[in-house]
Amino acid sequence: xxxxxxxxxxxxxxxxxxxxxxxxxxxxxxxxxxxxxxxxxxxxxxxxxxxxxxxxxxxxxxxxxxxxxxxxxxxxxxxxxxxxxxxxxxxxxxxxxxxxxxxxxxxxxxxxxxxxxxxxxxxxxxxxxxxxxxxxxxxxxxxxxxxxxxxxxxxxxxxxxxxxxxxxxxxxxxxxxxxxxxxxxxxxxxxxxxxxxxxxxxxxxxxxxxxxxxxxxxxxxxxxxxxxxxxxxxxxxxxxxxxxxxxxxxxxxxxxxxxxxxxxxxxxxxxxxxxx
Length: 276
Ligand SMILES: Nc1ncnc2c1ncn2[C@@H]1O[C@H](COP(=O)(O)OP(=O)(O)OP(=O)(O)O)[C@@H](O)[C@H]1O
Ligand SMILES: [Mg+2]
What we know:
Layout: E1 8-17, E2 20-30, E3 35-40, H1 46-53, E4 61-66, E5 69-71, H2 76-81, E6 84-87, H3 99-104, H4 121-134, H5 152-165, E7 170-174, H6 182-197, E8 201-206, H7 209-215, E9 218-223, E10 226-232, H8 238-245, H9 251-264
Parallel strand pairs: 3-8, 3-9, 6-7, 7-8
Antiparallel strand pairs: 1-2, 1-4, 4-5, 9-10
Helix pairs in contact: 4-5, 5-6
Bound molecules: adenosine-5'-triphosphate and magnesium ion (MG).
């Protein structure tokens, strides 16, 4: 494998649910040490796309390649075993569990054993704290603390540190900064950079253009299930990206059309304000 071979690649992937075609001819690739930002408005197909990447959905057509080799995922666990980690919006953490427990949860061998049979609390805590600190989160020092007491950004960081520790090569982040304030989001963006430095291929899903621009090496804009634009860092401005996400219409046009509608409808906004 040359170092230029994408860690993960989709070629002409379609996904349909019965008669409903959600993804159309999706092709994308991510190399080690790169961040691909996947941008798209609500309903664009982002979640469907990452579920396809994470082994939850099988593509209806097209190919998934890992290290240049066509592969299929026999469920999410299989995708995980092939090095693909997904971190969801709230970090997928359990509030009533300690940091150490949470860090090892689900990553222990479970076949034929109870999940905690081999659990060594002191060791788990030590590793969890070390790993989170290595990612630059030095405020976490006690592995016995409950995850519920951590901030949103710290939870995300914990989930990312866990994925990195357990050997993930592709890190998929589904709107990790959506529910966070400015400082917390900055925290998570720093960790994304850290994961990238360690050579992970990162897929970062967001509709916050500024967050994407902070960490992204390349960008794909998803509109109605198809990649409407694909460009590298520095090739488009924030305004251009925002306009693309609104479906090609400029935001100014969109606002004008909504105002126009309201003028003719006694001040009521349109029932569904989409770019359709
Ligand atoms: N299992 C399913 N069966 C039928 N249609 C589906 C299914 N899953 C998703 N869809 C449809 O696919 C489209 C894209 O949905 P998806 O959840 O992937 O969008 P999204 O970009 O993640 O949106 P959001 O930003 O709101 O999370 C929607 O129209 C949705 O209704
Ligand atoms: Mg979604």
